[in-house]
């Protein structure tokens, strides 16, 4: 008995250090560095953008689809508003929404997936069946369905997309948990009389951090994709506000006159999603040791081996 | 089947019950009570919940879909041509995308860490991260407006004509969706193929002196294709959502564009029908992929 505690403490700490170093090591690989830089540039532009924008985002200051000039570096949009200012102002809401939706999806999915796999039986059936129902709707369609009658409210869009992430996360974590819960240390904790809730949090979850982080990266990318896509379809912030997705939609009729009003917001979205995904990929290579996503590994059926290795 | 039933309940609940009263949602908050009453009658909102659900679901099976609330045409006449157009789009994309993904993935795996594998892995990573409308806009900028002007940037169809009558309108939407789904299939095929090539049975075959092409085609490929089929299935599933965005970029008259129009017009019967069709497609594809993947796995066919 006396030897159990002193032994487990340093092991926990070492594990945490290992994980933090996986994030750092990933950032040092060429792939990770490039990805992180790309994402950081966009995040920086979105965060300090509103502070340094030369014009108010909604003011009519130049010609409709005016060409870039010394005063208006990226020209005018379809109403004659300054494209540069709108680009700088149009990112932060997207970022906040994406982070919130990802948090909801990961938390809900982790809870559902780990409980389903660990509790088995009826709970497993009910949880995974509900997941199947949500999975039966393409995410965009699921969001549109709920928005169609409740109106395009931002918190609702965020919540909907977060909820629609959860089943995918749950599937991946369920597969991973099934494997971990067979291990000896889980059996040992159970035999000591640890309650199921505690076993899941203390023994199983710490072993799922790597796939969880990879999932977080992926869901963040998907969130941005969906939010930008919904904004492009006209379900985002109300009209005068600037959003990258909406800007692409508004200004695409003027592509031949001032393409920058479309190219710049599209490029920023692309840079952001590619950046996050590239860094996630670098992390997966370092932490899991394979250039394979958890969802792909789950399909080949060797997720367990990779987590163990 | 149970999933499908639950899906229909979710759609029904979301569209009819959640907002409190659909009649108000359609007519606006300060509509006159008389008009609300009349619309409630038309939508059967004044009856019990189960009764409403039964009317709707039995109508769905018997082809009585009701009328559009926007222009009072029947929902079917509104949706049918769109359904055909979208089906063409999904089918063409799915077939091209699957073959391309499997072929490129297998090729990358055979020359693992060769130049093609290295370049493609970077390109794929970028392609999997791109939102579909960014790909679409990129293609429009490149091929239809700013740089070159060789393809139509808008896929408008005259009413009454179907997509096959003007195939050049399909090129850009199909190209966009192929670019979006190929990376997933290709990554999976590559991973599964590498796994298969490193397996014991392939080594065994090599030791027996089986020729290289036979090992690849007969021993490795069938085993690699089984997990890939699941991803191809996922690709088709993705298309059910992807067409919503891509059809809107190109103004392609399919159900994805129809859905957005219906949502904007609060056309509940049309929304219900399109969402159920998409969800049914999703569920059926899911079952189909599982079955095909099971049949395609040589191991499972023998062992169980």
Describe what this molecule looks like in 3D.
The complex is a heterodimer of chains A (309) and B (304). Chain A has a single domain, classed as MetI-like (MetI-like fold, Orthogonal Bundle), CATH 1.10.3720.10. In chain A, 74% of the residues lie in helices and 0% in strands. Chain A is mostly helical and 309 residues long. Chain A is elongated. The mean pLDDT of chain B is 75. The interface between A and B is large, with 50 and 61 residues.
CATH architecture group name of chain A: Orthogonal Bundle
How many structural domains in the coordinates of chain A? Answer: 1
Please summarize the sheet with the most strands of chain B: none
| pLDDT averaged residue by residue of chain A | 76
Provide the low-confidence segments of chain B as ranges: none
CATH homologous superfamily descriptor of chain A: MetI-like
What percentage of the residues of chain B does DSSP assign to strands (E)?
under 5%
Structural class of chain A: mainly alpha
Mean pLDDT of chain B: 75
Helix content of chain B: over 70%
CATH class group of the largest domain in chain B: Mainly Alpha
Question: In short, what is this structure?
Answer:
The complex is a heterodimer of chains A (309) and B (304). Chain A is mostly helical.
What descriptive keywords fit this protein?
heterodimer, A: 309 residues, mainly alpha, MetI-like fold, disordered N terminus, B: 304 residues, 2 domains
Task: List the topology elements.
The complex is a heterodimer of chains A (309) and B (304).
Chain A: H1 4-28, H2 30-52, H3 83-89, H4 92-119, H5 121-135, H6 139-150, H7 154-180, H8 184-191, H9 196-204, H10 209-233, H11 244-251, H12 260-287, H13 294-300, H14 303-308
Helix pairs in contact in A: 1-2, 1-12, 2-3, 2-12, 4-5, 4-7, 4-10, 5-7, 6-7, 7-10, 8-9, 10-11, 10-12, 11-12
Chain B: H1 2-17, H2 22-27, H3 33-42, H4 49-62, H5 75-110, H6 115-129, H7 132-144, H8 168-197, H9 200-208, H10 212-250, H11 255-264, H12 268-296, H13 298-303
Helix pairs in contact in B: 1-12, 5-8, 5-10, 6-8, 7-8, 7-10, 8-10, 9-10, 10-11, 10-12, 11-12
């Amino acid at each position: 008995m006396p030897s159990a505690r002193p032994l487990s403490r340093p092991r926990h700490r070492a594990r945490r250090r290992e994980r933090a170093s996986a994030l750092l090591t990933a950032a040092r690989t060429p792939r990770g560095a490039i990805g992180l830089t790309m994402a950081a540039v966009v995040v920086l532009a979105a965060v300090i953008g509103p502070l340094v924008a030369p014009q108010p985002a909604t003011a009519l200051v130049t010609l409709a689809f005016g060409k870039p000039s010394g005063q208006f570096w990226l020209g005018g949009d379809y109403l004659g508003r300054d494209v540069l200012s709108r680009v700088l102002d149009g990112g932060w809401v997207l970022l906040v929404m994406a982070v919130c939706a990802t948090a909801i999806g990961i938390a809900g999915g982790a809870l559902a997936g780990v409980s389903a796999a660990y509790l088995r039986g009826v709970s497993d059936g009910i949880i995974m069946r509900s997941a199947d129902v949500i999975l039966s709707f393409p995410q965009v369609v699921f969001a549109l369905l709920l928005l169609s009658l409740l109106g395009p409210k931002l918190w609702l869009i965020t919540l909907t997309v977060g909820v629609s992430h959860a089943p995918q996360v749950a599937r991946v974590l369920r597969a991973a948990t099934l494997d971990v819960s067979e291990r000896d240390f889980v059996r040992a904790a159970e035999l000591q009389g640890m309650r199921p809730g505690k076993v899941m949090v203390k023994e199983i979850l710490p072993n799922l951090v790597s796939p969880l982080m990879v999932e977080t990266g992926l869901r963040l990318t998907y969130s941005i994709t969906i939010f930008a896509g919904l904004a492009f379809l006209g379900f985002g912030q109300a009209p005068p506000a600037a959003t990258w997705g909406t800007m692409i939609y508004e200004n695409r009729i003027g592509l031949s006159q001032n393409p920058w009003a479309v190219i710049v917001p599209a490029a920023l979205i692309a840079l952001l999603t590619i950046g996050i995904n590239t860094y996630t990929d670098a992390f997966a290579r370092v932490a899991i040791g394979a250039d394979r996503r958890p969802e792909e590994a789950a399909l080949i059926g060797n997720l367990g081996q990779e987590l163990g290795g | 089947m149970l999933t499908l039933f639950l899906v229909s309940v979710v759609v029904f609940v979301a569209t009819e019950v959640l907002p409190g009263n659909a009649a108000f949602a359609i007519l606006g908050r300060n509509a006159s009570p008389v008009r609300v009453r009349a619309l409630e009658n038309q939508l059967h909102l004044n009856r019990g919940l189960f009764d409403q659900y039964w009317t709707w679901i039995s109508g769905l099976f018997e082809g009585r879909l009701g009328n559009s609330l926007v222009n009072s045409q029947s929902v079917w006449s509104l949706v049918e041509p769109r359904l055909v157009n979208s089906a063409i789009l999904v089918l063409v994309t799915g077939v091209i995308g699957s073959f391309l993904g499997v072929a490129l993935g297998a090729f990358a795996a055979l020359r693992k860490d060769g130049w093609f594998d290295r370049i493609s892995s970077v390109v794929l990573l970028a392609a999997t991260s791109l939102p579909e409308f960014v790909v679409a806009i990129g293609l429009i900028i490149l091929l239809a407006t700013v740089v070159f002007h060789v393809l139509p940037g808008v896929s408008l169809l005259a009413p009454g004509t179907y997509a096959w009558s003007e195939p050049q309108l399909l090129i850009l939407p199909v190209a966009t969706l192929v670019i979006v789904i190929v990376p997933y299939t290709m990554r999976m095929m590559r991973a599964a193929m590498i796994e298969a090539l490193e397996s014991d049975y392939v080594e065994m075959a090599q030791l027996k002196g089986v020729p290289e092409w036979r090992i690849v085609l007969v021993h490795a490929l069938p085993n690699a294709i089984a997990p890939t089929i699941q991803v191809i299935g996922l690709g088709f599933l993705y298309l059910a959502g992807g067409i919503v965005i891509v059809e809107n970029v190109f103004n392609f008259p399919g159900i994805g564009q129809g859905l957005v129009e219906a949502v904007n017009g609060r056309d509940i019967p049309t929304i219900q029908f399109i969402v159920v069709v998409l969800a049914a497609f999703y569920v059926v594809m899911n079952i189909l992929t599982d079955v095909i993947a099971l049949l395609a796995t040589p191991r499972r066919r023998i062992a169980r």
